[in-house]
Structure formats: structure tokens, C-alpha cells
Design brief:
298 residues, mainly alpha
């Protein structure tokens, strides 16, 4: 019995170490880039978004709003109070919807993490997240043009934690918070990936997620709900799944529903939306992910 356990541990450690060597540098670089953007670029990004309200862009302002949402390094709980302040200053709801949707799905750190998945998966992730934000903004523009979509009445803007007068210490503290927030999930993702490689037959996985069938896409979108912990935590799993034959459509569906239904993100979104709009948000995410997955598999 001891020999069997020792053998299994050796196998699991082998799979763990392989994935660690392949992904660790991207996770570390993501932490560094994320901290740099947060400390030196966050205020500039939000200032640029705030300045959009003074421009006569109309519905076309949805696109830069999405791009700035992706560039924003803060989590959704930080984005909601900022969006509330933008709304109080007269920002359009369709632009806010685009900014918040894209901010939920992607950020500079996650872009760096996703490089480990390969060029094709990286392009798919960026383009589908951008499109998801654009479509969200368009839907709010079309169906909620004459009434407010958000309810920020109970929200106050949180104070920035990047306040140390020493720039180097400010950067190091931000980096430390990022490591603390994602490090455990990153290691857990590696462990889950090692367990998956050892005990899940490749043939069974390909049969479920590798074929160009709607059921596989729907299943990938569904498992994104309970499995998504944080961006860094799911990269090891996605990397292995793609290697084992997961279709790009299924991977895209997972990458969309995961962050959009992450429990902390749902809590933040629920604050800014009423019950009706919150249900609409969930339906939109699931339907968009499903349709996108099917389209990529054609």
C-alpha cells in the first residue's frame, strides 16, 4: 500500500512540476505587469474613460469603453464603485455596461497568463471578451436607452490602497497583494491539472469536449461556473485540456462563463443591478458563451 501511494505521489509530482515549469513564468510576469499597471496606469485609464463622456461618440463609444475595461487592472468589487462615480458624473449606461462587462472578463494580468495557452487561444480570449463587452453595451443601448440600467444608489467609491509615498514600496505592496490573492489558486490549479492528467482518460475527455457538438460547448460553459477560481488558477487546467483535445469553442465558452460567474464577481454585479437585470446578465453570459463556442467550432 505504501509503495502504491509513493508511486502515485511520484506521478502526480511529475505532472505538477511539468506544468509549473511551463506556466510559472507567465504567472509571475502577469503579477509584475498587473502591479505596474495598477500603480502607474490605473488612474490614467479611469481618467481616459471618464473623459469619454465629453466626446460626441454616440454608440461608437462602446468600443473604447470595452478596451479601457480590459486595460483596467482592478477586480469587479473595485470596478463597481468606480462605475458608480462615473454614472454620477453623467456617463452613459451603455458605455458603463461595456466597460464593466469587459473588465469582468479580462485584465492585463489575465492576458499575460493566457500567453501560456498559445497564440490561437490568446487571440480567441481577447477577441471574444471584447465582443462580449461590445454586445452587452449594444443591448443596453437598444433596450434600456430611456431608463437607467444600473442602481448605484447604495455604493460609495472605495479608497485606493496604492498610497505609499515611496513608489518602490507602493509597487512591492501591490505585488504582494496580487500574489496573496492569486498564489493559492494558482497552486490549486496545478494540483487539479496533475490529478486530471493522472486519472482522467484522454479518450473520454476528447469524446466529451473535443467534438464539434453543442453539448460539449454547453458542458464547458457549465463547468466554468463551479471550477473558475481566478484567472491564474484555471490556466493550468485549460492548457492541459487544450493539449488533450478540447475544441477551441468549448475553451472559449469556459473562458467566458468562468470569470463572468465567479462568485465574487456575481456579488459585485448584484450590487449594481436589480433582480431583473441580474437575471438578464446571467442569461446573456450563458447564451453568448454558447453561441460563441458553436461559431468557433464551425
Amino acid at each position: 500500500m505504501i509503495d502504491i501511494l509513493r508511486r502515485e505521489f511520484v506521478y502526480l509530482w511529475y505532472y505538477f512540476s511539468i506544468q509549473f515549469d511551463q506556466i510559472f513564468e507567465y504567472w509571475l510576469l502577469g503579477m509584475v505587469i498587473g502591479s505596474i499597471v495598477s500603480v502607474f496606469g490605473k488612474e490614467r485609464i479611469h481618467s481616459l474613460f471618464n473623459s469619454l463622456k465629453d466626446k460626441k461618440l454616440g454608440v461608437l463609444g462602446i468600443v473604447p469603453a470595452c478596451l479601457l475595461g480590459i486595460a483596467s487592472p482592478i477586480c469587479m468589487y473595485g470596478t463597481v464603485p468606480i462605475a458608480a462615480s462615473f454614472s454620477a458624473k453623467g456617463m452613459r449606461d451603455d458605455w458603463l455596461a461595456a466597460f464593466m462587462m469587459s473588465s469582468i472578463l479580462l485584465n492585463p494580468q489575465l492576458i499575460i497568463y493566457s500567453v501560456a495557452l498559445g497564440t490561437k487561444a490568446l487571440i480567441v480570449r481577447i477577441s471574444t471578451c471584447l465582443l462580449c463587452g461590445v454586445v452587452a453595451g449594444l443591448l443596453v443601448h437598444i433596450f434600456c436607452n430611456r431608463k437607467s440600467f444600473f442602481n448605484f444608489s447604495s455604493i460609495t467609491e472605495a479608497k485606493s490602497r496604492d498610497t505609499d509615498p515611496n513608489i518602490l514600496l507602493r509597487l512591492l505592496k501591490n505585488f504582494g497583494r496580487n500574489v496573496k490573492a492569486t498564489g493559492l489558486y494558482f497552486l490549486l490549479g496545478l494540483v487539479l491539472s496533475a490529478l486530471f492528467q493522472r486519472y482522467v482518460p484522454t479518450e473520454a475527455f476528447v469524446k466529451l469536449f473535443g467534438n464539434n457538438e453543442g453539448f460539449g460547448v454547453l458542458m464547458a460553459a457549465t463547468i466554468g461556473v463551479p471550477l473558475y477560481m481566478c484567472g491564474g488558477g484555471t490556466i493550468p487546467l485549460l492548457q492541459q485540456w487544450l493539449y488533450d483535445g478540447m475544441s477551441m469553442g468549448s475553451a472559449a465558452a469556459f473562458m467566458l462563463t468562468g470569470p463572468a460567474t465567479k462568485i465574487t464577481n456575481l456579488g459585485a454585479v448584484k450590487i449594481a443591478l436589480g433582480i431583473r437585470q441580474f437575471i438578464m446578465y446571467l442569461l446573456y453570459v450563458i447564451i453568448f458563451a454558447f453561441i460563441t463556442g458553436l461559431a468557433l467550432n464551425i
